[in-house]
Amino acid sequence: MTDYPKPPFPKQSQPVPGAQMKMDPYPDCGEQSYKGSGRLEGKIALITGADSGIGRAVAIAFAREGADVVVAYLNEQEDAQETARWVEQAGRQCLLLPGDVGQKAHCQALVDKTVERFGRIDILVNNAAFQMTHENIEDIPDEEWVMTFDVNITAMFRLCQAALKHMKPGSSIINTSSINSDMPKPTLLAYATTKGAIANFTAGLAQMLGPKNIRVNSVAPGPIWTPLIVSTMPEEDVQNFGSQTPLGRPGQPAEVAPIYVLLASDEASYITGQRYGVTGGKPML
Ligand code: NAD
Ligand code: MG
C-alpha cells in the first residue's frame, strides 16, 4: 500500500484515447507482481478496453490464471501489442481486435471473431469507456452525449446480447462501472449517468440470467491511474489525482484486477447482481 506513487504527479496531457506508453509515472498493471494459481484454467475471456489501464491489468491477471484472452480496443496499437506480449508470456493465446464498440456491427464482429477463434465465451468483461470533462451542461455537444451512451452502455447491451448465445452455464459477465455511478462528479455528467446505468443494467441482467446460471456483476473503481485520466481531465486534476481519497493516492490498475479474477472464477458461484467498489476508502452510497 505504501510503495505506490502519490500525488503530486508531473504535469501531463494527451489526446483521447491516450497512450499508456507516454504516462509518467507508468501505470502498474501487475506486469511484475501478479501471481496466478490456475483459477481460470482453460477459460476464454473477451475484454473490451484491454489495451491499457484496468483492462490490461485484468488481461494479464486472467492469462496468468490460465485464460486465453481477446483484447478489444479502439486504436491504441502499441498499447494493445504490449498487453498481448504479457498474455503470451503467460503461455496463453491473445487475439487483438481494434474498432469502435459504439458501432453495432463491431460489437457483433467482436463476438463472431472470438467464437471463430476459440469456439465459445466464458467471461465477458465490458470495460471500454469514454468520458470528457465539461464545466457546464451547455458545453456538452449533443453528438458527444449520444456517443458516450453508445460506447459506455449501449455497447454493453449489444455485447451481452451477442455473447450470451455462446456462453454456457457457469459463465460470468463483469461490467466496469465507477464510483460515479452514485457519487456523480458534475463535470463528468454524461459519463457518470452511463455509469449509473451500468450498475442498474447489471442488477437487472443478473436477475434475468440467474435461472441460466450465468452471473453478472459490476466493479466500481475510484480514481485509478490510467490513460483515460490523462487524456480527459484538466492538468491540475491530473497532478493531484487521487489525493482526495483516504489513502491519499490513486489506485493502480493492478490493485483493481484481483476482484475481476474473483468474479470470473468458479469460486464466485453465489455472487451475482452486485457492485464492488475499489475506491481507496471513499464511501459509496
Ligand atoms: P483506459 O483508457 O486504459 O481504458 C479505456 C479503454 O476503452 C481504452 O483503452 C480504449 O481502447 C477503450 N475505448 C474507448 N473508446 C472506445 C470505443 N469507442 N470503442 C472501443 N474501445 C474504446 O482507462 P481505464 O481507466 O482503465 O478505463 C477502464 C474502465 O474503468 C472504464 O470503463 C472506465 O470508465 C472505468 N473507470 C476508470 C476509473 C479511473 O479513475 N481510471 C474510475 C472509475 C471507472
Ligand atoms: Mg487505451
Structural write-up:
The protein is α/β, with parallel strands linked by helices and 285 residues long. The protein is built from 8 helices and 7 strands. It has one domain (38-278): Rossmann fold, CATH 3.40.50.720. The chain has a 7-stranded parallel sheet, sandwiched between helices. Strand 4, helix 4 and strand 5 form a beta-alpha-beta unit. The longest helix is centred in the middle third of the chain and has 23 residues, at 142-164. The two termini are 25 Å apart.
Primary descriptors:
single chain, 285 residues, alpha/beta, Rossmann fold, seven-stranded parallel sheet, globular, binds nicotinamide-adenine-dinucleotide, binds magnesium ion
Fold blueprint:
Layout: E1 44-48, H1 53-64, E2 68-73, H2 77-89, E3 94-98, H3 104-118, E4 123-126, H4 142-164, E5 172-176, H5 189-209, E6 215-221, H6 227-232, H7 235-239, H8 257-264, E7 275-278
Parallel strand pairs: 1-2, 1-4, 2-3, 4-5, 5-6, 6-7
Helix pairs in contact: 1-2, 1-8, 3-4, 4-5
Bound molecules: nicotinamide-adenine-dinucleotide (NAD) and magnesium ion.
Summarize the structure.
This protein has helices at 53-64, 77-89, 104-118, 142-164, 189-209, 227-232, 235-239, 257-264; strands spanning 44-48, 68-73, 94-98, 123-126, 172-176, 215-221, 275-278. It is an alpha/beta fold and 285 residues long.
Give a list of the ligands.
nicotinamide-adenine-dinucleotide, magnesium ion
Indicate the proportion of strand residues.
5-15%
Helix content: 25-40%
Tally of strands = 7
Mean pLDDT over all positions: 98
Nearest-angstrom radius of gyration? Answer: 17 Å
Q: Which ranges are low-confidence, i.e. pLDDT below 50, for 5 or more consecutive residues?
A: none
Overall 3D form: globular
CATH homologous superfamily heading: NAD(P)-binding Rossmann-like Domain
CATH classification class: Alpha Beta
SS content category: alpha/beta
The helix count comes to 8
Total domain modules: 1
- Euclidean distance between termini CA atoms: 25 Å
CATH topology: Rossmann fold
Order of helices and strands: EHEHEHEHEHEHHHE
Query: What's the oligomerization state?
Result: single chain
Mind telling me which CATH architecture this is?
3-Layer(aba) Sandwich
- Outline the biggest β-sheet: 7 strands, parallel
Q: Write out the strand line-up for the largest beta sheet, numbering strands in chain order.
A: 3-2-1-4-5-6-7
